[in-house]
Specification:
There is one protein chain. The chain is of the alpha/beta class. The protein has one domain (5-313): Vaccinia Virus protein VP39 (Rossmann fold, 3-Layer(aba) Sandwich), CATH 3.40.50.150. The chain is 44% helix and 16% strand. It is built from 13 helices and eight strands. Strands 1, 2, 3, 4, 5, 6, 7 and 8 form an eight-stranded mixed β-sheet that branches. Helix 7 (170-180) packs across helix 9 (227-234). The longest helix has 16 residues, at 35-50. The radius of gyration is 19 Å and the shape is globular. The relative contact order is 0.17. The model has no long low-confidence stretch (mean pLDDT 94). The protein binds S-adenosylmethionine (SAM).
């Protein structure tokens, strides 16, 4: 029989997580910058379990069935922007292993894509994937968006998927995004934000929400929904109505939760976990709590995390 995560309470999940990882031990990372360690340890697991092509974002499957096509929704949104503008230069922030820029570069050969990421290992891997694909209209450079260096200027489109959640100063980042765009240029982001206060949730759900974030290296919690819109407007961009696409995450989240529940329910696997790199194995925590912590329109005990598409224009 197929596993149904709705039959397991958040409290039971917390018990499993505590047995496997020790909740207090995981919570010690609250407030620490663990991004480099998290990706160094999780990288191989992402490629094995999530996407061999180096995709590191959630799938959006609007038809209710998990499939690889879901990973392409975000980069296809970029293709649509580029086509509408007839743009020729595109910048990606926090590109990871380059999946989105490479996908776009493979579709429109006369557009130049530049992917940037904080971590040199990601940039190197992105270059390998691009070389393997034989594309010369995509380059990758090491750069943090916090803030984006001055050399990035004059782009038709700038975008960042599931990376801007790590921003510490959204005003600073938004100002550097605005500076990187040419007048009339477009900005696109997809990311998770908090629609409400985690402290106002029932205590188990609040704990699960914090653990979900920490296990994805978001050790300062989630940015409040609305903050990016304010920062982008302050930077002079005109923000479109925001799209909430949280429900389209569900097939992907259910896909992961079953695997995680099976692993964490098995005492032998829990022992094995203790010998493996912690930031890699803790992805099982995010996988387990995913459906519980997202706002999916349930009547009771609904989560507060929403997955949004935010777009904006730099006025001419
Ligand atoms: C969840 S991954 C998403 C990668 C990619 N956007 C994708 O869709 O596959 C988040 C990425 O953000 C990068 N990142 C985190 N902080 C950053 C910063 N300040 N500047 C640039 N990249 C950053 C990480 O190194 C990682 O590659």
């Amino acid at each position: 029989m197929t596993f149904d995560p709705r039959t397991v309470s958040v409290s039971e999940m917390l018990t499993l997580v505590d047995k496997a990882f020790g909740i207090d031990r995981v919570m010690k990372d609250w407030g620490r910058d663990v991004v480099p360690e998290y990706y160094a340890q999780s990288g191989p697991a992402y490629e094995r379990m999530h996407s061999t092509q180096g995709c590191m974002h959630y799938a959006l499957n609007s038809d209710g069935v998990f499939s690889y096509e879901g990973y392409l929704v975000q980069p296809r949104a970029v293709l649509a922007e580029v086509a509408a503008l007839k743009g020729s230069r595109v910048l990606e922030l926090g590109c990871g292993k380059g999946f989105n820029s490479l996908f776009c570069a493979q579709h429109i050969h006369d557009v130049q894509f530049t992917g940037t990421d904080l971590l040199p290992a990601h940039v190197e891997k992105a270059r390998v994937f691009a070389a393997d694909a034989g594309r010369d209209n995509v380059v990758y450079e090491q750069a943090s968006y916090e803030p984006l260096p001055d050399r990035f200027r004059g782009y038709d489109v700038a975008f960042g998927f599931e990376t801007l959640c790590y921003a510490k100063d959204t005003d600073l980042v938004a100002a550097s995004i605005a500076a990187a765009l040419r007048p009339g240029g477009r900005f696109v982001m997809f990311d998770m934000q908090a629609m409400g206060d985690v402290d106002a949730l029932p205590s188990d759900l609040a704990r699960a929400t914090r653990l979900y974030g920490i296990s994805l290296a978001m050790t300062n919690g989630f940015l409040p929904a609305g903050q990016w819109e304010k920062s982008l407007e302050k930077a002079g961009l005109v923000v479109d109505p925001v799209e909430d696409v949280t429900k389209n995450l569900l097939p992907g989240l259910y896909h992961q939760v079953e695997m995680s529940h099976r692993t964490l329910s098995d005492w032998k696997k829990r022992i094995a976990i203790k010998a493996l790199p912690p930031y890699m194995t803790r992805n099982a925590i995010a996988a387990l709590f995913g459906p519980a912590v997202c706002r999916l329109g349930r009547d009771t005990e609904d989560g507060i995390l929403v997955y949004q598409k935010i777009t904006a224009t730099k006025p001419r």
